[in-house]
């Protein structure tokens, strides 16, 4: 267990936005909350999963809802803490630590906000290793762990416990309905996990990884080096394509932002075209019509000069972007993992082939 | 005869033009003065001298960067009480939360957070705490605060909480100026609240400044109503505009682009404005600058304004050219000291202007002083400048086809006559005072940015359009002349019932004064 510095939280926000693979929501407001908390003297602690006893309990948390609503109803640490204490009351047991549901985007910082209020450590890990749009797209689902109970807290003292759900899909449907009713934004504590489950089924070390990515970007910027090279160095990633956004089409279906973006090649990629499909996050990329990279490999689109991640909601014609691929956590690459988060889970009739194979 | 005077107060020069119908009949360029009004008085005197008919102008439009500079330079700012309505949500991120500390210390007089606000679908979040608001209004009266900014959760969709708070304030402390966030910004509470806070801290300065403008006008013997130009290329009557100073933050570049459209008679084009230090590239759509859709920082404060989408390059007439270790151009510039420091003016600094003179693009200063510049250096520098302009232009294009490019500003001689991705480069008469021309032709606008549910796309746009037209008429537009200039819609992930965020902007001619 070690203390996390304010600088590391800043790095985490940058790294997590890149690991968001286009989705996950901007970490900006969560980061502002952490700055406030650190100003008040809070210091969060990061805990290695190996320090957990097998029968310890860990709260897996996330903020749920529409990013746009989050821009008006600003996220706050109390609501996150409420979802966690409500789960403790329901279970009649105390948690040993909090952990993020997804390390990609704003949810990477949510457990720190809750942990600051509850004086608990945060586990170095998550259960996606990136961001994904659906509840069953987690390492816990791949391991067939139980998906209930779930608690959902609203800032107005409305709280919901989903005691049971017949499947991950049902859990998603029921909790989303409750979330919409309280204004399409809520803090959630997912099914509690034992120390043993965390050690065996979580994606461990992803918080440290995100901090490392952010730190590399910051160091490169300070030294006027290429921040994208820095990301590739620190992650073992591959540069897939570079060019300019040429066309962008978006539509919302079944509550997801779906669409495609085409990129016209520049420099070493001149004369080539790249197409990206997304469902909240980037899912598949085609080079000149042939599939080149696909989920669960992480597809990240970065501003070619600044190295900032670009979300699927903020893609725009004319942006200079670089597409990179980062290796997916091994659990997502197992046959079971591919079933949950491979291209067919997103409606693409493709056999998964990793760019790192 | 329709006569209009346009004035642009820039950092270096104050430009004035007289338009008769659609013809530019007189132009004046004078140095900007520290008190701003003296420069305006001089410009108007010059204009009347060249064209006595200027006295009969029916409208005078002034564009000024005065208020932006006040924020950037931290001067003449008033102290403000911030009222946030939205508890219990957002409690951990109070007003001023992400401001630079020096600015917050100057501006923050009091922070009040109250229950209230709305949901994205218009339902109340919790009932509005009117009692708390009345108590706050009494405190504000007692402490002698002169300006208040009010921001409520989702107020662009439902403004009743902000309006109720403003009514309570007017009742309890009638001398206090109230800025409501829903009048200024879009969805995004912190950024909209920041805009309201900036507006509130500028309101006293704006009142003083617009009144000084009016006096300068009357002193010049001109009886026409005064309008101030805004970021979006439209105007507001000075007595309305003085309560919304933040609307004029980026009016300078906007006026340049609007002037470029008018002078070239092109509504769909790219505009390049080359000044002494920087080059701004923007895109005209329906004769108006395309707006930025992202966060804009002013003096270190994040806002979400109607601002023109501009790409600024560190390239202008005064930009430094370095030969060692490798050829580099900018971003440093000699700025207004060009006429002392550039080679052709007897100085010892190699600038872009020197390169242009050596290449024969323009005749300025003493040509013989650059005769010894190696031809290869001149060629390499021009190639570099071309590449900078070509990449900048390409970034600002909205699609892959070729587009015309209008060149304005004092440094427009740097724009090559032919560029990749550009169908033609247009040089226009009066290009050096395009900004004042842009001010003179300004119209009145209205805008709506709202989330619609369970409507078809066409229905949502029609609704938004009606609301935008009503706003334009309230701001002084003639309804019969209103046109839609921008429609944007974005489907929203995670919101139920086919939610569509729709933004519509309309403009119309100024309605005749009664």
3D architecture notes:
- The complex is a heterodimer of chains A (357) and B (514).
- Chain A is α+β, with helices and mostly antiparallel strands and 357 residues long.
- Chain A has twelve helices and 18 strands.
- Chain A folds into two domains: 2-206, 3-Layer(aba) Sandwich (CV3147-like fold), CATH 3.40.1610; 226-346, CV3147-like (Beta Barrel).
- Chain A has helices at residues 6-19, 28-39, 67-70, 77-91, 110-118, 139-142, 168-181, 195-201, 206-222, 227-235, 330-333, 335-341; strands at residues 2-3, 45-47, 57-65, 97-100, 122-123, 125-126, 150-153, 159-162, 185-189, 193-194, 203-204, 238-253, 256-265, 273-279, 281-287, 290-294, 298-303, 320-326.
- The model of chain A has no long low-confidence stretch (mean pLDDT 94).
- Chain B is of the alpha/beta class and 514 residues long.
- The chains are: A alpha+beta (357), B alpha/beta (514).
- The A-B interface holds A 29, 32-33, 36, 65-69, 71-74, 76-78, 155-157, 180, 183-184, 244, 246, 250-252, 255-257, 264, 280, 313-314, 316-318, 320 and B 86, 88-93, 97-98, 117, 119-121, 123, 125-126, 153-154, 187-190, 293-294, 394-400, 451, 490-496, 498-499, 501.
